[in-house]
């Protein structure tokens, strides 16, 4: 349904993207109803603003009849497509779509789309930096910031759209067609929403569903599930994390990244050019380079974009050094694979702060890295007991009830030359609104603990 004028359209969810959806559809003549389970008191001035614009706003428990009377239902990214009211409406013949699908109906700018369990934001932003450094005008958004529908609501004057895309957004994608699609990795995450890892992976692989032989798929050769799920896609494949030379691909050899495409030949990038710690970020850099080159970047732009890149906060962010102990904020690590990569990237032994709201994936994959590199565990939040059952027998572990207590315990357990790492392997919603708030609280507690220790500032900030 690409004609929306005078259609009765229900937007589900009034977060940032839901508000943008309601505004976009309303401006194009649709009869919009925006629904959210939150009470009016929790949404500030959002309901009043939308009503003034002519949008009907319905709050509280969903009315299935209202959903079933719609011409179209559009879901915000965090709203599951398995919601009972949505499923009932769909079974009654009401089409259901999501924000990226709807936006793609109206966007004619070439799209680079990035998905994966870990590294999406870093790679999306790296691609944008590489394209901009090549003299192109790249819009960077999607799941990481500005919604795609906001781009569709504007002048759409970019040369390239670079979008981070989540599995939740891909669940409702049908005609979404990026010219360049990137799938970084598939590891256990969101298993509170998907029945198993394969189902989660299938959602990720939908990013390639509408690609043709003229398009490019950038894939992680080292991920067996990715290679299985993308075996029969139509797009031309460029593989990173290769073990050897390839016509289009990238590999890491002797602390150097080798990137090769048919159009640009081979380029070598020293590990020192990557301003981010860890081998996983070298892999991210090669994936970004392949995608950027496929989307029109120059070799010089790739190198400049990489050199000048500044990572987002809460992703292995160095906080400070107190009494010879380094403190890192990796609050964005909300799954086990991200924690494994983080622990491997910092100096060890590590005092590791874990915990939060469990996401259903288990913690057994942390066993090898805890045995090899972790001195002690400090546990925080709802998942503390579950983590202690699986990992507590490997090293000393301490359960705490606040970030202040967790940081104080970690400081007591660490010795000079150690690293204290917040890398939770869990969502933040038990104690915080989001991972950023959790990371900011960690940084505050670290700095206060350091000052209390001897009344001094950090050794090196």
**Parts with pLDDT < 50 across at least 5 consecutive residues:** none
Strand content: 15-25%
**Main sheet?**
9 strands, mixed
Q: Give the beta-strand count.
A: 20
By CATH, the topology of the largest domain is UDP-N-acetylmuramoyl-L-alanine:D-glutamate ligase
Please state the second-level CATH architecture of the largest domain.
3-Layer(aba) Sandwich
Explain this structure.
The protein has 461 residues and is an alpha/beta fold. The protein folds into three domains: 8-94, Rossmann fold (3-Layer(aba) Sandwich), CATH 3.40.50.720; 101-307, Mur-like, catalytic domain (UDP-N-acetylmuramoyl-L-alanine:D-glutamate ligase); 317-454, Mur ligase, C-terminal domain (Protein-Tyrosine Phosphatase, Chain A, Alpha-Beta Complex), CATH 3.90.190.20. 35% of the residues lie in helices and 22% in strands. It is built from 17 helices and 20 strands. It has helices at residues 16-27, 46-52, 64-68, 84-91, 99-106, 120-133, 148-152, 167-171, 197-205, 224-229, 279-294, 299-307, 336-345, 367-373, 384-391, 403-413, 435-454, and strands at residues 8-12, 31-36, 56-59, 72-75, 96-98, 111-115, 138-142, 160-164, 180-183, 216-220, 236-242, 249-253, 256-261, 265-270, 317-322, 325-329, 350-354, 374-380, 396-400, 419-422. The strands form three sheets. It has a nine-stranded mixed β-sheet with strand order 7-8-6-9-10-11-12-13-14. α6 (120-133) packs across α11, α6 (120-133) packs across α12 and α16 (403-413) crosses α17 (435-454). The N and C termini lie far apart (54 Å). The mean pLDDT is 94.
């Amino acid at each position: 349904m690409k004609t929306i004028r005078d259609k009765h359209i229900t937007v589900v969810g009034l977060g940032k993207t839901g508000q943008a959806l309601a505004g976009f559809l309303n401006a194009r003549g649709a009869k919009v109803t925006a629904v959210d389970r939150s009470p009016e008191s929790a949404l500030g001035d959002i309901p009043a603003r939308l009503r003034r614009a002519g949008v009907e706003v319905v709050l509280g428990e969903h009315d299935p009849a209202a959903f079933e009377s719609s011409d179209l239902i559009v879901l915000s990214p965090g709203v599951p497509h398995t919601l009972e009211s949505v499923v009932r409406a769909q079974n009654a013949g009401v089409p259901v779509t999501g924000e990226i699908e709807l936006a793609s109906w109206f966007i004619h700018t070439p799209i680079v789309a990035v998905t994966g369990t870990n590294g999406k934001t870093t790679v999306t932003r790296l691609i944008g930096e590489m394209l901009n450094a090549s003299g192109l005008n790249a819009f960077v958004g999607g799941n990481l910031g500005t919604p795609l529908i906001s781009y569709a609501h504007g002048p759409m004057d970019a040369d390239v759209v670079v979008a981070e895309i989540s599995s939740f957004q891909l669940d409702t994608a049908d005609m979404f067609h990026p010219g360049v699609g990137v799938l970084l990795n598939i590891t256990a995450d969101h298993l509170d929403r998907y029945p198993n890892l394969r189902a989660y992976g299938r959602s990720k692989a939908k990013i390639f569903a509408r690609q043709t032989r003229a398009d490019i798929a950038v894939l992680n050769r080292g991920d067996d599930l990715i290679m299985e799920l993308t075996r029969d896609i139509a797009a031309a494949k460029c593989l990173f994390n290769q073990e050897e030379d390839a016509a289009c691909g990238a590999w890491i050899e002797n602390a150097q990244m080798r990137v090769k495409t048919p159009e640009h030949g081979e380029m070598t990038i020293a590990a020192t050019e990557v301003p981010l710690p860890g081998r996983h970020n070298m892999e991210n850099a090669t994936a970004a380079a392949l995608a950027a080159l496929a989307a029109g970047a120059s070799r010089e732009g790739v190198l400049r974009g990489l050199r000048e890149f500044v990572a987002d906060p809460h992703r292995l962010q160095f906080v400070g050094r107190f009494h010879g102990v380094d403190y890192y904020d990796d609050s964005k690590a909300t799954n086990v694979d991200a924690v494994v990569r983080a622990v491997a990237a910092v100096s060890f032994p590590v005092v590791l702060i874990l915990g939060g709201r469990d996401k259903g994936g288990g913690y057994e994959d942390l066993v090898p890295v805890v045995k090899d590199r972790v001195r002690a565990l400090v546990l925080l939040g709802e998942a503390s007991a579950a983590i202690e059952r699986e990992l507590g027998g490997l090293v000393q572990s301490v359960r705490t009830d606040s970030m202040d207590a967790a940081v104080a315990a970690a400081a007591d357990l660490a010795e000079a030359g150690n690293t204290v790492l917040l890398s939770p392997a869990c969502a933040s919603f038990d104690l915080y609104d989001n991972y950023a708030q959790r990371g900011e609280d960690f940084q505050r507690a670290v700095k206060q603990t350091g000052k209390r220790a001897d009344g001094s500032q950090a050794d090196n900030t």
